[in-house]
Amino acid sequence: MSEGDLVEPGALDQVLILAPYRRDAAYLGQLLAEYDMAVTTCASAEELAGHLLSGPGVFVTTHEALTPALIDIVAKHLSAQPPWSEMPIVVLLDRASPNSRIRGQLAAAWPRSRQLFYQRPLTQVELVSGIQSALLARMRQREVRDHIEREIELRRELNHRVKNILASVSSIFEMTRRGATSVEALAGDFGARLTALSNVHSAVFEAKGESISIAEIAQLTFDPYRQMGISRIDAAGPPIMLTREAGTTLALCLHELTTNAIKYGALSVPDGRVTFCWDILANYGPDLSVLWQEAGGPPVVAPSRSGYGTRYLRAALAGLLGTKPDIQFVPEGLRCEVRGPLIRVACNPKAPADV
């Protein structure tokens, strides 16, 4: 972990104390522990540098402990903070110390920190309240961090989805163009196929209802390709109504698998076939079983590393059914299978009419 990777679980809740003289560290640690704060103490430059790597929530120190070397260690840590981070630092001053000069020096040395100065002696309530407020500020920073990470992941996923959609549109256009006998026929067929491609997005993303069937998801996903003459996609299974959220995830996974099959797999050659089937395994809970099987395509070679699409499938299907999917890059054809509790994804799964 680098100094900028302050993402260790629970690290931002820690109070790091540097007070090597007298019994200050023991007193502060005991006091804060009484208020259910997690405390770590250090007594040297080496210990301080190591503890800062974990990204403490608040750093508490006495001013006499801050030698030039220690001030430099803290400064280097602060300069390596990610943009969302501003580590609060609580400095305990003595009544006889040159407080104004100390404040000025630390403000210049640590520009990226929220500095709180307390002059001793001070009441326990005042100190505890100040540190609790600093931890609260740190919690807000953590929320900003989490929001930034979600935004980055959403942007990556959106970029990936847009690329896949554009690849599908390009494929539809090329296959339509080859068979077109006139500009009017090209425009009509291409427009119809784009409409079919958008149906699954409209049905799942914009549907006002709370459920959608697996059969409908499969039909809306595969129809654009079937209209292009790719009729080598078989889909079958019992009637099962999924929640809107589960339907969205399944639709995205089918788009991922279909796009991959057209680019590299069974649907990239005339004799390749794809089977998508689902079933209810009554002896397992009941469980929903979903299988994607390709055959007749080019020999499959396992990738040297997992691409975004494979990572997404694993994460999405695991989140959908609570178990990791079994994705096999066997030479005969890609196989993706997942099974999990029906109750996680189905609307009213106990009703016979739904299953």
From TrEMBL:
Q: What class of enzyme is it?
A: transferase
Q: In which domain of life is the source organism classified?
A: Bacteria
Quote any Pfam family the record assigns.
Answer: HWE_HK
Instruction: Enumerate the SMART domains for this protein.
Output: HWE_HK
Q: Which reaction does it catalyse?
A: ATP + protein L-histidine = ADP + protein N-phospho-L-histidine
InterPro entries (UniProt xref): HATPase_C_sf, Sig_transdc_His_kinase_HWE
Q: Which GO terms describe its molecular function?
A: kinase activity
Span of domain Signal transduction histidine kinase HWE region: 157-239
What EC number(s) would the UniProt record show?
Answer: 2.7.13.3
Question: Keywords in UniProt for this one?
Answer: ATP-binding, Kinase, Nucleotide-binding, Phosphoprotein, Transferase
Protein name as it appears in the record = histidine kinase
